[in-house]
Every structure is written in C-alpha cells, then in structure tokens.
Amino acid sequence: MTHRTHTHDTPRDAADAAVTRRQRFGRLPERIRPEDTVETRPATRPDPARDTYNADEWLIRYCG
Questions:
Q1: By the 8 A CB rule, do 22 and 14 touch?
Q2: Which letter does DSSP use for residue 30 in this model?
Q3: How far apart are CA 31 and CA 22, in angstroms?
Q4: In which domain of life is the source organism classified (predicted)?
Q5: Chain mean pLDDT for the chain
Q6: Residue 10 in this model has a pLDDT that exceeds 80
Q7: For the chain, what is the total number of helices (H) and then of strands (E)?
C-alpha cells in the first residue's frame, strides 16, 4: 500500500484557488420560470369510438 503525503497549501495557492472558485461558482445560474419547464398538449386525439358503450365488451375481453 502506498502512503501519500499531503502537501500544505501556501496562502497564495489558497488565494488563487479562492479566486478560481469564485469565478466558477460566484453567481447563480439564470433563473428558469416554471412556465418554461412544462409543455402541455393532449396525449392522444379524442376517439369517439373508444367512448361508446358496448354491452358485449366483457365477453370479447375475457372470453375471446
């Protein structure tokens, strides 16, 4: 097993890292409105034949 030693950061390295971190993460991303995250449209076209009642449908489904 290899033992790694931790190098101590100098104050200048820490300051450079802080500047880099601030440049990268210093501001929040642009806000996204909820209206822009949702798309609404009908899943399927209405089918009138699907909504008609068929008294023998149970027979076709379970015995056919």
A1: no
A2: P
A3: 19
A4: Bacteria
A5: 81
A6: no
A7: 2, 0
